[in-house]
Design brief:
By secondary structure, this protein is of the alpha+beta class. It contains 17 helices and 10 strands. The protein folds into 2 domains: about 90 residues, Domain of unknown function DUF5300 (Immunoglobulin-like, Sandwich), CATH 2.60.40; about 375 residues, no CATH class. About 50% of the residues lie in helices and about 10% in strands.
Length: about 550
């Protein structure tokens, strides 16, 4: 899988060396691939994941510099002589790896069509009643299930904002967004069909797998502020709110550490992880909001009602900006032994083409150094995609400590989206503000990265959780929520099925899929190791969890901490 045959036919009268490098490896030195004797031939297996740059060398002379994108299962030939080389010739046509994806979309389309036909055929009223089942709103009060919110069609007009007293209804679009995030997370964690598109980027850039974690954090922020506001209206004291936040954070940390304890050796246990960072962020942002949030009934309309939601949280924003500034200052100014200040690269072969191997042991710059200093290398991991592309040998953790500071901004931008819901109760003010936030954060991310993958001041990078990455993901989250809110909550063109069931029980799905990812019936040992088989298996495993979420919803079973 992801391999092709490359045959080099030499007509040269001297021995030749073939050098290559993946196009994904930015500014990396070329590595020797093969030695070809005079008038000799060689057959090579080449990875098809990224385009390959190559050239030939003999006696210090280089020629035939080329970049070629090989395709899976293809057979290719190149004739070379002392004076030059021909174009690469396709001997056997490759198999398009996109066919299984197109087939999966077709099957999904048929499934959606069949689902709607069945809904139409059955008792529609009974199905509607099922969809209106309300999960326990207090238990699902943060990132693991959206809270309840009344839908008031009136915009703020009076001097004093009245507390909403209507019957609680779920924000189905937020449940659906959360459900989409957990479904995609399960799919990519299961392998994503073996496609590079569904894996994490080696370093800079974005793939599908890089999107879902920041989406989840952003959604947690939305739900957090609405839940806290609801509890304040219930006359719950702030000290009790803080204790609830603290207890919930500790539980998330404990569950996260337990998931990584397959190796019970405490000297090599991974300390940080997905749920661990979520727990820390929940504590930080939850504490900020618990102490400073204004009860909705006490909010007064000032001179700037259009931005009242921002003005009323100026102190919270000040704290978040300070934390973000601390992150940026440490990233660019903290001295790292034997590494230049402000380095944000992967180490290994990075920049070895022009500057030698001076960055080889600088993986992650200040972020990697802080984690290795505080957590210890044995409590971190080596990412295979990073090693395969950049030949990095240093351990690194993309859920590390410094990136947690910038993640606070990710969550708080979600808090701001939730505050929009609290302050403005009709569709247009909500969607308009979310769209403005999406535009501003997206444009700011583009400026920081210079709208480039590698050449920006701060490239978009999930592994170091760069500021441009935070803003880009927030922009996408604002946009996604706007679209889903219009389609689901406002126009009712889609019920959110089947994702909103998963969005009401994400903790159970996340923990469950982590514990059973190597077990039947979710996974099995592949027979052929083809994209078709892996895609089928990974989609099947994801679908089983979506079905599980629906069954648990019908039985009113929700896992919370």
């Amino acid at each position: 899988m992801d391999e092709a045959w490359f045959h080099v036919m030499s007509q040269s009268t001297k021995d030749i060396c073939l050098f290559r490098q993946s196009e994904e490896c930015y500014m990396c030195e070329f590595l020797e691939w093969a030695r070809i004797e005079a008038k000799g031939n060689v057959s090579l297996v080449v990875k098809t994941v990224y385009p390959v740059k190559m050239y030939f060398e003999s006696n210090g002379q280089r020629w035939c510099h080329t970049t070629y994108s090989f395709k899976e299962y293809g057979q290719y030939r190149l004739n070379i002589s002392d004076s030059g080389c021909d174009s690469i010739e396709v001997l056997e046509s490759p198999f398009s790896a996109l066919y299984p994806i197109l087939g999966a979309f077709f099957v999904l389309f048929l499934f959606v069509l069949l689902w709607n036909l069945v809904k139409f055929a059955v008792n529609y009223k009974g199905m509607a009643n099922t969809q209106e089942r309300v999960a326990p709103s207090l238990d699902l009060q943060s990132d693991l299930g959206s809270p309840s919110l009344a839908d008031d069609s009136k915009v703020m007009k009076s001097e004093r904002m009245p507390a909403v007293q209507h019957q609680k209804t779920r924000i189905v679009s937020l449940d659906t967004f959360r459900g989409i995030s957990i479904a995609v997370m399960i799919f990519v964690n299961y392998g994503g069909g073996g496609y590079e598109l569904f894996k994490h980027c080696a370093w800079n850039g974005l793939n599908v797998a890089d999107l879902v974690y920041p989406w989840f954090m952003w959604i947690m922020g939305v739900s957090l502020v609405i839940s806290l506001q609801s509890q304040l209206k219930s006359s719950l004291q702030r000290k009790h709110l803080f204790l609830n936040v603290l207890l919930r954070s500790m539980k998330l940390l404990a569950v996260g550490v337990s998931l990584y304890s397959n190796n019970t050796d405490l000297f090599s246990l991974r300390v940080m992880g997905v749920l661990q960072r979520i727990g820390i962020l929940y504590l930080i942002v939850g504490t900020i909001e618990t102490m400073l949030i204004q009860p909705q009934g006490s909010v007064r309309i000032g001179k700037w009602p259009v931005v009242q939601d921002v003005l009323d949280s100026w102190l919270q924003w000040l704290i978040v900006i300070i934390l973000t500034t601390v992150h940026t200052t440490l990233t660019f100014l903290m001295p790292v032994p034997n590494c230049p200040k402000g380095y944000l690269g992967p180490g290994g072969l990075h920049y070895s083409l022009t500057q030698g191997y001076k960055y080889a042991n600088c993986t992650g710059g200040a972020a990697g150094y802080i984690d290795r200093l505080i957590l210890g290398e044995k409590h971190m991991i080596i990412y295979r995609e990073l090693h395969d592309v950049y030949h990095t040998s240093q351990p690194y953790d993309d859920c590390g400590l410094l990136g947690t500071l910038s993640s606070v901004l990710t969550v708080y931008l979600g808090v701001q989206a939730g505050r929009v819901m609290l302050y403005y109760h009709s569709t247009f003010p909500r969607v308009a503000r979310w769209t403005i936030w999406a535009t501003v954060t997206g444009f700011a991310a583009g400026i920081l990265c210079k709208f480039s993958k590698e050449e920006g001041w701060i490239p978009i990078n999930k592994k170091v959780w760069s500021l441009s990455f935070v803003l880009a993901m927030a922009s996408m989250s604002f946009f996604m929520q706007s679209v889903l809110y219009l389609v689901i909550d406002d126009r009712h063109w889609w019920s959110g099925t089947p994702f909103h069931y998963a969005g009401m029980n994400p903790l159970l799905l996340y923990v469950g899929h982590q514990m059973t990812k190597s077990m039947l019936p979710w996974n099995w040992k592949p027979f052929l190791y083809s994209h078709t088989e892996l895609l089928t298996m990974n989609l099947w495993g994801t679908a089983l969890w979506l079905i599980t979420a629906y069954i648990l919803f019908c039985k009113n079973i929700f896992l919370t901490v």
